[in-house]
Amino acid sequence: MKNEMRESHGCGYGYGCGFFLIMELGETDPSKHIAAMFEKTDDSGDLFVLDTNDCGRSPRLYLRCKMNWTEADRDRMIDEYEALYPSLVKLGELYKRLVIEEDCKDLLTPELFEVWNRFVKPFDVGRFDYERIFDISCRMDAVEEVGILKTRALNVELTENEKAYINEFGSEVISDDDAEYYNEYRSHLKAQAVERVGGNVGAFGVVKSAQRVCRLLSLNAPEFIVRIEKLHLAQSMAIHAFAETPLTTLILCDA
């Protein structure tokens, strides 16, 4: 018996992918999480982590990210995260007011205004119908979650709530027109993210995580939820800064 890796498909760093890394590394402090990512990067720059959605099936699914960073880069990234987060806390205190102000420059210091514009300011939806986008997004989430539950059912007995969820949402579909429209919308947002934070891997993930952290803080969300998003933000920043290629899914096969 031997193990062999083969590449399956790209997964485009965004929500979902990040949680696999977080759950596998097991750190709850964002700075320590960045350090753990560095420690798990091998000598060739590959960072391999188990995709926890594979539910113990064979073949196993892994994610690979090609990283190019040094200890100095790791320390710099930790410093950048630790400098950004206090600003997000302050913006979270004003978030509800900031999102409705036409010009919020007078409400913020120059430093906070820069963070707002780069990381937190809502994206311009442009020509897109937000109600349609929201509907498609909800249905996409349902399709993904049903798929996860069906995979889980291969190995364990589902709860009654999980079975009910599949019964309720198992017939959801995404038409080709809806998928095309949503992908155009995502491309529109990603272009704005690249303009804000630069064009390496995962620019959208950085901005979206920063926005979520700020919004969760403004809502006084449970600490557990905020902590997960803080980890996701730290991870997104590291991947954006030092990944040479997008995350790809790999299959570990027994041969």
What attributes characterize this protein structure?
disordered N terminus, disordered C terminus, about 260 residues, globular, alpha+beta, 4-stranded antiparallel sheet
Strand order of the largest sheet: 1-4-3-2
Number of helices: 9
Order of helices and strands: EHHEEHHHHHHHE
Q: How large is the radius of gyration?
A: 19 Å
Residue-averaged pLDDT: 82
Secondary-structure-derived class: alpha+beta
Estimate nothing, just give the exact number of structural domains. 1
- Total strand count, please? 4
Uncertain residue ranges: 1-20, 52-59, 251-255
Portion of residues in beta strands equals 5-15%
Q: Largest beta sheet, briefly?
A: 4 strands, antiparallel
Q: Please bin the fraction of helical residues.
A: 55-70%
**Can you tell me the overall shape?**
globular
The first-to-last residue Cα distance is 6 Å
